[in-house]
Specification:
four-stranded mixed beta sheet; alpha/beta; 11 helices; 19 strands; L-arginine/glycine Amidinotransferase, Chain A; single chain; about 25% helix
Length: about 350
């Protein structure tokens, strides 16, 4: 069997996968708002790379109308294409395949099991199957895994290092029959990593995903991570994120490098639908030439965007309002999944880095 690795998110993309939101029992009174936000995110990403929006059967026309299918982005993207496949929900970071490349640049998709973040929503059987359907649609080889894993639970550097949180991956509602060592072994086997860095915490308020890493930490380049580090001592994650940072400071990546850490001290709390929500600036999507970041429409947005821009100096950073998405439990990263470019052996080149 060929040896595959998961490339870093900043490697060149063929495009981006998204899923259209329709789950009324999740979105309730903000369903119309979240459809607008998903469409805005799709158009923002389409300015940099093609977007395939997957809609449940019967919802394709609505998605096409709202996303402006076929529109070309101002900075050279090729627009949004809508297809229909059976879906339960719309969080493709977690239910879509995780794409990997072999040494010759051939692409495959790892199809981990999906159980709706420990059975928090029902049904979820269509979302458990959609990864295989997407790989069939794309003509991409499927690598099956029996382990439950969401893409938002990991971040990789493409050079052998993976970061995750104990809060999520060791939660008993995911893989109660697997030990930490067994989970780590499966991550290494399927994603081609050689070192796993375990942070103790995700977000305390992130009860929907049980603390995905994509709300608190992300690789921005080989040897460089961006981390959430709230400056307000009253923030519920003030001490927890400092504990995460201490782990990163003390550790090294798969190549033995000490990590450069870029802190994002800004946080964004606001009210929506009679509830208090937090918009996670860390939950962004890295596109070809751009970074699409969730924002809350608050003064601190600009400072957070500036910090993220410092981590990606060769990319255009774009903020997209994502209040309703945060109400549902996620951000821009949660609703997207990148498709890395496949390069046959004759044209294979090293993955681009920032």
């Amino acid at each position: 069997m060929a040896e595959y690795r998961m490339p870093a998110e900043w490697s060149e993309h063929e495009g981006c996968l998204m899923a259209w939101p329709t789950r009324e029992d999740l979105w309730g009174s903000v369903l119309a708002d979240v459809k607008e936000e998903y469409a805005n995110v799709a158009r923002a990403i389409a300015a940099f790379e093609p977007v395939t929006m997957v809609a449940p059967p019967g919802h394709g026309e609505e998605a096409r109308a709202r996303c402006g299918e076929g529109a070309t982005g101002a900075t050279g993207g090729t627009g949004v294409t809508v297809i229909e496949l059976p879906l339960d929900d719309s969080w493709f970071r977690d239910s879509a395949p995780l794409f990997v490349l072999d040494g010759d640049g051939n692409r495959a998709g790892v199809d981990f099991r999906f159980n709706a973040w420990g059975g928090k929503h029902h049904p979820f059987d269509a979302d458990d199957r959609v990864s295989a359907l997407l790989l069939e649609h794309l003509g991409t080889d499927r690598i099956a895994s029996d382990m439950i894993l969401e893409g938002g639970a990991i971040t990789v550097d493409g050079e052998g290092t993976l970061i995750t949180t104990e809060q999520c991956l060791l939660h008993p509602n995911r893989n109660p029959g697997l030990s930490r060592d067994e989970i780590e072994a499966e991550l290494k086997a399927r994603l081609g990593v050689t070192k796993v860095i375990w942070l103790p915490y995700g977000g305390l308020l992130d009860t929907e995903t049980d603390g995905h890493v994509d709300g608190v930490c992300a690789f921005a380049a080989p040897g460089t991570v961006v981390v959430s580090l709230p400056s307000d001592p009253a923030h519920p994650d003030y001490a927890r994120m400092r504990a995460n940072r201490a782990v990163l400071e003390a550790g090294t990546d798969a190549r033995g490098r000490r990590l450069e850490i870029i802190d994002v001290p800004q946080t964004a709390f606001t009210d929506l639908a009679d509830g208090r929500i937090e918009v996670s600036y860390l939950n962004y999507y890295v596109a070809n030439g751009g970074v699409v970041v969730p924002v809350a429409g608050l003064p601190q947005d600009e400072d957070a965007l500036a910090v993220i821009a410092s981590a990606y100096p060769d990319r255009k950073v774009v903020g997209v309002r994502a209040l309703a998405i945060a109400f549902g439990g996620g951000g821009v990263h949660c609703i997207t999944q990148q498709i890395p470019v496949a390069r046959p052996a004759a044209t294979a080149t090293p993955a681009a880095t920032v």
